[in-house]
Amino acid sequence: MPKALPPKLLIQTGKFAWTSMWRLMMPKLAPRNSKGEYIRPSSQFRSSIGTETGNLYQPVAGRYKLYVGLSCPWAHRTLIVRALKGLETAIAVTIVAPSPLEGGWVFSQTEEGCQTLAELYELARPGYDGRCTVPVLWDTQTKTIVNNESSEIIVMLNSAFNEFASHPDLELYPEDLREKIDQWNEKIYPAVNNGVYRCGFAQTQEAYNAVCRDLFAALDEIEAALESQRYLCGDRLTLADVRLFTTLLRFDAVYYGLFKCNRRRIQDYPNLGAYLRDLYQLPGVAATCNLEAIKQDYYSSLFPLNPGGIIPLGPDLANLLEPHGRENVSTEQVVGGR
User: Taking the model in full, what pTM does it have?
Assistant: First the structure.
């Protein structure tokens, strides 16, 4: 009988094979630059819904549909704004699920004659060769994608459908706070929202080290700001909070371990941890959160980061229902007490 491979050779062979395969798969999963930094491609569908004369996409109840994945933080933003505004009867939702075998999102049943989200993108734009991502804001009338950029979709959901909303007076992007909201978004997007992905998808140690430092520097800055104000822009909930929340929700369960963002958990921050609980407990928000689906999709679908496919049992997320104590945190009270 042939002799078994020596352990050293077996280890070297296995490491070489896996490293070679990892390097082959990662560019498809996460495009990189010459430094090994993850570069997120831009969204390609950027039309808007509005009442302006000549706008092809007028706000009409029942005309538009959202395609979302429960695990995706970008899609989750749209579900939260839809719930906060009370647009459930005006805008339908279809849930898609990631399929490692298909290499993308798939439908549980045929939609518009399509079995996969990639086919839906092809229907909207024949010959399309870009990324097929969620969320998708779909126009059932013209059979096309209106927009697939979450930051723009949530602005539309906030203002374009007020005549059909149960909570039309809730303004998440008020004129007097827009500059401040935009400033927070410009800071939080690269360092936190996309920063966790830049950590997880970094392909060199140097790239990872730099972005991980940026991520936790930004979290420290947010933690300090929340010491004296309930929300990012003061005492009013805004789109900036919605955009941050979906990353914070996934942080301890996914990004901390799978994406190597493990310098500190969100629940270890006194203000950020309470802020996360505060937002989670807002009416309608918890119903949009499926933490088991989040863990299932990340740990089973991102094969290059978790080749064994083992899904962790923890962490215990019951703390999201604990009292947050942030009702009395406001800039006005802090200033008045000085």
Answer: 0.92
